[in-house]
Structures are given as C-alpha cells and as structure tokens.
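Dissemination and training. As part of the outreach component of the grant, students in the summer workshop were shown how a complex can be specified as a set of sequence lines and then modelled as a single object. The example used during the hands-on session is reproduced here so that future cohorts can follow it. Participants entered these lines:
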Amino acid sequence: MIDNTVPKKYSIKNTPKETLEKWYELMTLGRAIDNKAPNYLKQAIGWSYHAPYAGHDGIQLAIGQVFEKNKDHIFPYYRDMLTAMSCGMTAEEVVLNGISRATDPSSGGRHMSNHLGKPEWNIHTGSSVTGNHALHAVGVARAIKYYGEKAVAISSQGESSVSEGYVYEAINGASNEKLPVIFVFQDNGYGISVPKKDQTANRKVANNFSGFKNLRIIHCNGKDVFDSMNAMTEAKRFATEENNPVIVQANCVRMQSHSNSDDHLLYRSEAERNYVQEYDPLAKFRRLLLRYNRFTEEELQAIETNAKTELKRVHKAAMAAPEPSPESIYDFVIPEPVGSEKYPKGLHNQEGEKKKLITALNDTLKAEFRYNPDTFIWGQDMANKDKGGIFNVSKGLQQEFGPDRVFNAPIAEDFIMGTANGMSRFNEKIRIVVEGAEFADYFWPAMEQYIESSHEYWRTNGKFTPNATIRLASGGYIGGGLYHSQNIEGALASIPGVRIVYPSFADDAAGLLRTSIRSRGLTMFMEPKALYQDPKAATVVPDDFEVPFGKARIRREGKDLTIVTYGNTTHMCIETANKIASETGLEIEVIDLRSLIPLDMETVINSVKKTSKALIVHEDKVFGGFGGEVASVIMEEAFEYLDGPVHRVGSTFTPVGFHKNLEKAILPQTDKIIEAAKNILNY
Amino acid sequence: MKKIALIYSFNSNKTRLAADKIAAEFSENEITKVNAETLTGKEFISFDNYILGVPTWFDGELPNYWDEFVPELEDLDLKGKTFAIFGLGDQVGYPENFVDGIGIMAGILEKCGGKIVGETSTEGYTFESSSAFRNGKFLGLVLDQENQARLTRSRIKNWVSELKQNFK
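and obtained this result:
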C-alpha cells in the first residue's frame, strides 16, 4: 500500500527567513516580467507569444525548488516562466528568450517565445505540442533508472494536455517500468477557452489514473507556496526512493487570458475574472509573510523595488543583445555523421560467403551492441524467447545483451519514438535503435514524435539531438495490403532533420546500419522486408563494413540511360538493364541511391551527363513520391545534357490492395520498368 | 448557554446571507458575529461555542480567509470548545469535492481538541465524494444555493433547533 500522507515540511511559521526571502524575490521578479511581457509585443519588439503564468505561482516556484540542475531532468511547458526561473534561469535569460535574441539559451531565437529551456542544465526546451514531453520525461527516466542515478524527471504540463493520447502512453509506461517521473498537472481549469468539463469526466484529471499500478497521485493547491512545496518535496522523495512515478495535480487559477492571441473576456464572466484575481498566489504569499510577522512591510517593499530595478537592467541588457542572423539558418539541421576511413565511398571488394539481408542486419546489430555498451533497442515484438522482432531481425539480442538493453515496448508507436528521444537526453554516449512499428505503414501514430524529434537539434541551436535509428520493415510484394505493404519515405522526405536510408542489398544494409547507430542524430532506416530472405539481395558483408550517408552506389554501369532507384526496385532495375542489354545491346546505368537524405545528386548528375536520359524508379507512389525531387534536380542541373524527358515509374496513386491481382497492378513490376526504359531509349 | 461566535466572511455573498438566516434563529444576545476576514487567534480562542461559515472553493479548498488563518488555528488548544460548521457547495458542478471545506475545517478543529456537533443527514443530496462525509453523515450543515436554494431556509431551521441542544 502506498502511504498517501504528505508531510508538512514547509509552513509559513517554520520556513527559514532566507528561504522565504529567496522565494519572494523570485516570485516578485517573475511576476514583474510576466506583467511586462505584453509591452514588448505592443512595441513590436518581440514576445509575440506569451502565456502568462500568473495564478500558477505556488506550484511553479515549488517545481523549480525541488529541481537539481545537472542531476534531475525537467521538461517545462510554455507557461512555465517562474518554473524556469525557480530552476535557476536568470531574468535576463528569460527576456532574451522572450525577444528572441541570438544569445537566448533556449533556442537562440529559433523557437517560439515563452518556450524556456537550458539544455546544458537539463532544463529541456519544450515543444508547442502540449504535453508531448511527457514521453521524453519517461525516456530519460528509463536511463536514470538503468544507470542507477538518484534523480527524477519532471514533466510539467497543463491539465488539458492530459487529453492527449501520448500522455496516457507516457504515464502507462512510467507505471509499467516503475520509473522516477513526476508528472505535474498545472490545473487552471482551461485549455485556452475549453473548460475542463469538456476535456474529461473527472474534474481532477489525475484521478483518471487512479487504477494505475505503482503510481502515486498527490493533489495540492498550486496557488499556495507551502502546499505546493510540500507536495513537490514528497513527490520527489517518493519518486527517487521508491523508483516509481507520481502525478502532482496542482489547482491553479489563470488570472489572464490563455495567451496574447486569446481574449478571456469572450468566455469568462466578470465574477469569475474577479475572483481569480482575489486568489492571486503572490498576493496570498505576501499577506502570509506579513500576518505571521516573517517580514515587515518595509522589507517586502524593498524586495519589490529591487525587482523593478533588476528588470530595468535586464531589459537594457537584453535589448543590446544580438539578433539571430539569416545566414545561420542552415546551422544544426542535422549533426555531422561519422565518416569511414576504410570505406569512404561505402564500397568493398571482399569475396567469400554471401549473407542474406536479414542476417547482415542481425549480425550488425549484435556487433554494434558489443561495440558500444550504451546501445539499446526496443519495439513491439522485440524479444520473447526465440522471437526477436516482428521478422526476427533482432533474434538472439536479448539473450546476449539482456532485458535491460533489449526489450519489448507496448503497442504504442509514439511511446516507442518519444522515449527514444527522451532516453537520448541522459548522455551523449547512448545510442538507441527502435523498431518504430511492426510495419512501416503502422508508423503514423508516431509521427507526432517523429516531427518533434526531427527539429530538436535545430530548435535547440545545436544543444540537443536525439541519437536514434528508427528501423522500419517497409514496402510490399508480400501480399500484405494496407498497413503491411506501403511505403512512407516519400511523405517523410519533406521533413528536414532526419536522414533517410533505404538499402537494397545485404552489405549496404549492414554498412548503413553501422553508420546510423554510430552517428549522432536521427536516421530513418527503411528495410525492404520482401528482400530479408531473398537470395538476390544476399552479398558478401565485411565484418566492419560502413556505408557513409549520401553515397549512391552504381550497381551496373551503362552509357545509354540512367535509372535512379532504391530499395526493392533496385533489383527490378538491374533485371531490366540486363534484359535490355541482352536484347538490344544498349547499356543502362543503374544507380542505387541507398541514402535519400542526404541525397547524392552528384553521382546522378554525372551519370545523366554521360547517358543523357533518365528514369527514376521507386516502389512508393509516383504522385508526390521522392522521384519527383530527383527529377526536378536533374531538370535544374542537367537539362542541357538531356535528350528526352525524365520519366518515373512507381506505385499508382492508390492504396496498396491485398489480393495479388490488385497488388501486382498497383506496385511497380519489372515489365513496367522495361516498358518505360524502352520508351525513353527510343525517344 | 454561553454566547456563540458566528464566524464567517462579512465580504462573502451567499455565506453571509446564510449566516444572517442562522443568526435569525437565535436571540440577539446568544450570537456574536465575527468577521473571518480579520480574525485573530486571540479573538477566536475567547469563545467556547462556535458556528463557522466555511464554503468550498475550487476543487475542494478552503477560501483564502480561512486558509490563511489555519497556521494560527493549528497552534490553539480547543479542548472543551464546541464547533458547528455550515458550508455552501455545488453538488452538480463539483460532485467530487462537495462541501470539502466543512470536512477540512472539522479535521483541523478536531486535531486541536475541538468537538464537532451539528452533523446532518445526506438525504436529499447527490454527490460523488466529500471530505465532509463521515459515518454516513455530513459533519455540518450543507447548503446548496446553486441547485437547492428553496431548501435552505428549512435546512437552517432544522439544523439550528438541533444545534441549540449541543451548545452549553
């Protein structure tokens, strides 16, 4: 049984005066900034997004006071200005963020104002997607537990964010894995204008989780400094000593509109607006300090005067700070990957026994887990006795590396992806591999975290990158139909910040996987599942093979037509080239891209300059597919070398059907490629 | 019977009106009205019989004027003193924390040695949980002006008539 008593460590009577003084200073200065923020927008200086925290003062002070920088991890949300200050961020840093200066420690002006963070202290910069950092907190708590740290991860969020499905996934995961996470729900009764009665049936949303095992729920008055301090102190004790999660639901008031794009006059009565002012936490704290003779009126006025003076100084300093330069936009899109001294072009000449693609992947995973003890893998169906991955790609990993490094995840793709992001935050040595979903086209629920993870390196101005490889069994030709046969790389390729690779042969699969796991940053690793066991994808694989990103491989040389392809269709294109060569003597060059992002257009353009004709083939849909990008660049950079229009072959603009007749009609086949190639050759 | 301190916020609306109705059930010299907003421990301890007006705010909290008095209250020795509590709540809007204020206050007073009187039946109320609910009864008089205003007068009348027997 969990003891639900919250000890009253702090009260107005027994808290040391210097502590009360520090709190009042923080709260007074914080409120002064909160009140001044709208003026920056009125003067067109900045701070165009400001979510006032007034009314949340008690709980925000308390969150920051229990946080230990460089030890705990905190994930504030966009209303957490006082939280950030209570964690140690200075007033100047807050204003630098508000007016988006280059020296803003949160993002250097790249992220929206009022999204405060200082990643170097483990104050993680939050998303605008409400509450999605709950998954990151769970991920980093997994590392805290694995490495035996006595620390907590704190996810701070509004009560309405709990309506999001991923918050359920996060709390479920923390409960199941018994992780030291404190989820703080700052409950001001509204999600912008939506009252909490329209979010969920319980007025106290934390109680929705009362059936979760290992989870403690603490309610507190977030308007009251002492009640909040006692709740957060106990929550931290419980999380660190019991290694279990806690929800702290703090009842607050929102004294202003949701943000400066909202007007609460439109939906809150005058009476309500008045009584929330009466319940101002700062005013209450001040009254208590005087009532219980802890401070004199003069002492408090002196602190208030100092806050005004400090704010003036901070304003001046922040206004003089540099603005971000337009030239900096390409900095920190994606980290520099590891290179390869031995295989700079990702080629080898080794001879010997061939390995199937699935064996090459399995061997490489094992080799990398031996190479780096801080490598982890999880996903659905990852490990249960002889089952290792949906297609057994990770077979034997758990037996060799143990259940703490190789383990199953719940059927929750966003959780798989989000905790990968979160665990990466613990230290730079960690490398994570996830099976993002059972099949690539089940990945969509994880898109929220995929997008989030894609821009964190850029958003934090290079201070944080998730270091993860997302493996997905992709594509068709297995009679799988919807959710089992489709390609998603075309849809993903427009999102900057993630590398996308799609090998066709065993050696490239091994080499790219090694480079993905060893490199910083995020790599989407597409596996053509139809080729896992196919002898035609089997190759000799050097044990230490590496394939650098952005190096296409010419799989067949030719002078009459360039075919650019990747994945399953590489083999069809080689077959096409061989057939046409034997029939006509015309030689087709087949380029296997291997990496879509970064894209090796140099190899493509050089080939087109030689052949003057180009055909792009991929399994994904032609309409909106990746081939459109390749074709456009060929047009832009090699138009004068072309002797005919660039053509594309790919799937029809339909879903992939289940019946073999439908699948065959929809997915590209060798005969379709031959026909297209002949048309271009004859042009 | 010693004088009863009727303590409530003079600045409140519904609680003040209910307090007036309660006071009307006593003769003038039986009751001393005290403003909870300016209450001190010294003033509080000077009585032996009390009727406290304790509404519930937000999701089960004391109003500020009571909450800010609690640290002082917790230091008082209330042995031999008798307390009756009335409180306003909204059983439709806040069924999960219905009149929690009564229960919170009763708990503090009991911890200090005070005796709680004036329990009432829960019949006629619909709610999910309440800190004021103990052993099948409410720990005081429960008034719901939002949803059952027409019952207020009779509820007060019945409560006060029973209450008079508890005060010495």
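The longest strand of chain A covers residues 614-621. Students were then asked to discuss how this feature might be tested experimentally.
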